[in-house]
Design goal:
Chain lengths: 746, 152
């Protein structure tokens, strides 16, 4: 065992036990929210003992572990409790999992985003389990009057071999509650892990396949009304006036009114982004009635002027410009090209790239673009709100409950402790649910109609009032000398309105003469994080350019990359290089081996790529054939280094999903605009990858190591886009520089 | 408004709704059968798939007035204990990520197996193509359908 300092905040433990009045019985309601693990055998206990904020133990030894973070499909509701259970030393069969409430005094970082959930909780959750185990040991030592060091545990049992005494955790749970929280608790050595590193099924699996209500949209409460919004038809437009007389008279309709999501003089929190903050609400008894009434509301719209919106977060203040105008895709794509041609702001420069370009024998220059994307979580945006004069109950799918708590408190004029945000399972997040404008909208509507309401976006609302992945453009240049050495390298990236550039990522650090530049163009089309923000573009284009560069230099694409990593490892250029060259090269070597890269199968076209983002490394090989103009993806190989793999089969599932999602968006998806109007409003026009287009098979392998685990929600998405682009080139003889690729395959 | 007597999961249910109301909202709003999901409302995503006399249909585009006495099966009625071969295969392959699309996927898959006990890859692709999964669980679904075909 290793001794580590307890990182658990002592105050939280005390606070919980004080709040719960020491060792107490938790009411029966408590059980309703619990999810038995798939293999659970024990029946419900008579009494539960609250050991700390994260777990309670029943008198029969059944354990309930709280899953602190929002579940968006990244499987943290299973993997995070696994960390607690490992150190508590219980049988997974005896574990139930419950979604924790938002409580920032007990839990830290209750946020789903950036693939950080597992990474950030690796130590703290294990410490929580180990601390509780220690409390049980101390309780047994006291009861049996033996030294605690002589007590061992195994699968939920306390044993003192000297005296032959034994007790289940359940028998000591009540005594453990009164034990002062110990400070220095040893954690297991990695080789002692019994749960971490084994495949455990999704704790909500049975509920999902039997259709039990789990999602925000499944919230129905006594007296609840249904609300929907109407927003302007175009970015750059806002509400002028409405005539709701007809709609208000329709069957089941309670109210139609206009409202502002954010106060006009209020500074907004960093996630308080909303496509259209001035909206019409339609409230009625049932969803269908409200949908019909929406069509009967007559609204007049007007062009919005230039706007500057102030934001703040953790004491930092900034503002964002939303210029007037009705933007069209064709127009801003041209604007991006023109802006790119003017050059960008230098963010990193190593050596003498500019001079070396002048001296180069050959220069390869390529420009890449990608369109806006809508998040399209399968569960459309929705939220339940019940706001009264002294309390707000807000329940639904949200990735950032901590941040929204403050905004809700500001907007409703209620103190923070009167805002109760409850997290539900989410039908996808992908970044969209970081921006909780729908939560605030629901709260304001509930307050206005003085009733519990559930706000639901139609798919059209969801798609046309989004916080999109912005359109991006990148230009890569490389200078080669007469011997095909890379003597200068330049990357310039920008977008509407953020640059996707990561200046310190590979190939920075591997090239003596390197230049990275940024630019952006203001827009009134709202944008935000989308699965693997910025990497979702930068990876694919970088890897496609390297492929072309390797070809130009007459090298195998894997050899070229490995040479660069050799250089980055042995003679790194510059500082702050944001990757570990050895681990990077490691996944490339693994994918080379997995795919038999050096003796490829006949009749398939293959491309490779590798990328590092969100602390994990992924390399891919894509094998495809063409069926006329349609690519058929036969196989994708994924080599992954995310450190210790907590739940291997679930991790494999995430990688398969991210791979399909990356391929799908790069190949098929786009959101385009004409005069500010989104041209795709639903899945009839917006193309998402479907069953028949998915890869026929995906093989995943993990690099085995003892490094602390990192996340997987995002890392598999970006690199496969590069591997796909490179395979398409092999298949067609044509490089495609603009996404979605399918448009250029006919 | 009009009263309809429906045959849902083997039980008679009466609802008083506008005749144009899609079955999706009859199930969700009026009968509180919440397993059938709303995804698009225009028969493009498959989240709302139910069985009508054993055939997969999109309940978002099926007005209650057209159902008559046809047998409606929802995810809640697919099996009593969640042990339909397709549900079991879904658990065995640990398919769900966010899980939102999965009730619809399961209803499409179970309807496919009713008519075709040994579907080929192509059969699976065409039967399942109307069901979108943003989380990308397609390869697992294909394997699970084959597992279910063997065990049913
Ligand atoms: S909601 Fe019916 S098919 Fe999408
Ligand atoms: S599991 Fe999330 S949409 Fe299919």
């Amino acid at each position: 065992m290793t001794k580590v300092i307890t990182t658990q905040d002592r105050r939280s433990f005390l606070k919980v036990s004080a709040a719960a009045g020491g060792g107490i019985l938790i009411g029966f309601n408590w059980l309703l929210g619990c999810t038995p693990s798939a293999e659970q055998v024990k029946s419900m206990p008579e009494e539960w003992y609250n050991i700390n904020g994260f777990l309670k133990i029943g008198d029969n030894g059944l354990v309930t572990i709280m899953s602190p973070n929002p579940e968006i499909g990244q499987n943290v509701k299973t993997s995070m409790p696994m960390l607690v259970a490992e150190e508590l030393d219980v049988d997974w069969k005896d574990v139930m999992v419950e979604q924790a409430p938002l409580n920032t005094d007990i839990f830290t970082r209750q946020l789903a985003g950036g693939s950080q959930s597992i990474r950030q909780s690796w130590e703290s959750l294990r410490t929580t389990g180990a601390t509780a185990r220690q409390m049980l040991i101390l309780a047994a030592a006291k009861t049996w009057d033996v030294p605690p060091e002589e007590i061992t545990t195994e699968n939920g049992k306390l044993v003192h071999s000297g005296s032959g005494k034994e007790a289940g955790y359940g028998e000591m749970a009540s005594a453990a509650v009164d034990i002062p929280v110990p400070d220095n608790v040893p954690l297991k050595e990695k080789k002692e892990f019994k749960i971490i590193g084994t495949s455990r099924k999704n704790v909500d699996g049975h509920k999902i396949v039997t259709g039990q209500p789990l999602y925000g949209i499944d919230t129905y409460e006594e007296g609840m009304l249904v609300a929907m919004i109407i927003h302007p038809p175009a970015f750059g437009m806002s509400l002028k006036s409405i005539d709701a007389s007809e709609a208000k008279n329709m069957a089941g309709i309670k109210d139609v009114f206009t409202f502002e999501t954010f106060g006009s003089d209020e500074k907004r929190g960093s996630f308080d982004i909303s496509a259209f903050p001035h909206l019409i609400a339609v409230v009625g008894e049932s969803t269908w009635q409200v949908m019909q009434a929406k069509k009967a509301v007559k609204a007049e719209w007007e062009k919005t002027g230039d706007q500057t919106v102030p934001f703040h977060r953790s004491g930092r203040e900034w503002s964002v410009n939303f210029p007037a105008g009705l933007e069209s895709t064709e127009m801003y794509m041209q604007k991006m090209k023109d802006r790119d041609a003017q050059g960008g702001e230098t963010v990193r420069e190593d050596g003498n790239p500019r001079e070396n370009f002048d001296k180069a024998t050959k220069i390869l220059e390529r420009t890449y673009t990608a369109p806006h994307l809508a998040h399209n979580c399968m569960e459309p945006m929705n939220f339940f709100a019940h706001v009264t004069s002294d309390k707000a109950i807000l329940k639904g799918p949200i990735q950032t409950p901590e941040f929204l708590e403050e905004t809700a408190s500001d907007r409703l004029g209620l103190p923070l402790e009167k805002i109760d945000i409850q997290m539900t399972r989410m039908g996808g997040g992908f970044g969209r649910r970081l921006y909780g404008n729908f939560l605030i909208e629901a709260a304001i509507i509930s307050k206005k109609v003085n009733a519990p309401i559930k706000l639901i976006y139609t798919r059209e609302d969801d798609m046309t009032a989004g916080t999109y992945r912005p359109a991006y453009l990148a230009t890569y240049r490389a200078g080669l000398d007469a011997d095909n050495n890379i003597t200068a390298f330049q990357v310039r990236m920008g977008g509407m309105s953020e640059s996707p550039l990561f200046a310190n990522r590979f190939p920075a650090g591997a090239l003596d003469h390197y230049l990275a530049e940024n630019w952006s163009i203001d827009t009134n089309i709202t944008h935000g994080a989308f699965r693997a923000p910025r990497s979702n573009f930068s990876a694919g284009v970088e890897q496609a350019f390297l492929d072309e560069l390797a070809e130009e230099a007459g090298k195998d694409p894997i050899d070229l990359r490995l040479e660069l990593f050799e250089k980055a490892k042995n003679q790194p250029v510059g500082e702050n290089n944001d990757y570990d060259a050895e681990r990077y090269a490691g996944v490339i070597k693994l994918v080379r081996e997995m795919s038999n890269w050096d003796t490829p199968p006949e009749n398939v076209h293959r491309g490779m790529a590798a990328y590092y983002c969100h602390n994990s490394y992924v390399a891919n090989v894509v094998d495809l054939v063409m069926d006329g103009n349609k690519p058929v993806i036969e196989k994708v190989y994924c080599a992954v280094d995310c450190g210790i793999v907590v739940n291997p089969d679930a991790a494999t599932n995430m990688i398969e999903g991210g791979t399909i999602d990356g391929i799908g968006h790069a190949l098929y998806s786009e959101l385009t605009f004409i005069d500010g109007v989104p041209q795709q409003k639903n899945f009839d026009k917006y193309k998402l990858i479907r069953h028949s287009e998915a890869p026929k098979s995906i093989e995943v392998q993990f690099v085995k190591n003892d490094i602390d685990p990192t996340g997987l929600g995002e890392p598999p998405y970006p690199p496969v886009i590069g591997a796909l682009a490179n395979a398409l080139y092999k298949a067609t003889g044509k490089r495609i520089y603009d996404q979605p690729f399918i448009k250029h395959l006919s | 408004m009009a009263v309809f007597t429906l045959n849902i999961n083997g039980q008679k249910k009466e609802v008083d709704v506008d005749p144009g109301t899609p079955m999706l909202w009859v199930l969700r709003d009026h009968l509180k059968l919440l397993g059938t999901k709303f995804g698009c409302g225009i028969a493009q995503c498959g989240a709302c798939t139910i069985h009508l006399n054993g055939t997969a249909v999109r309940s978002c585009s099926l007005p209650v007035s057209s159902v008559g006495e046809d047998k409606v099966t929802t995810i809640e009625g697919l099996s009593e204990k969640g042990d339909h071969p397709v549900q079991k295969a879904w658990i065995e392959h640990d398919i769900p990520q966010c899980g939102y699309c999965q009730a619809g996927q399961i209803m499409s898959a179970s309807a496919l197996l009713l008519n075709n006990s040994n579907p080929s890859d192509k059969d699976i692709e065409s039967a399942m193509n109307g069901n979108i999964c943003r989380c990308g669980t397609y390869t697992r679904i294909k394997s699970a359908i084959k597992t279910a075909a063997k065990t049913q």
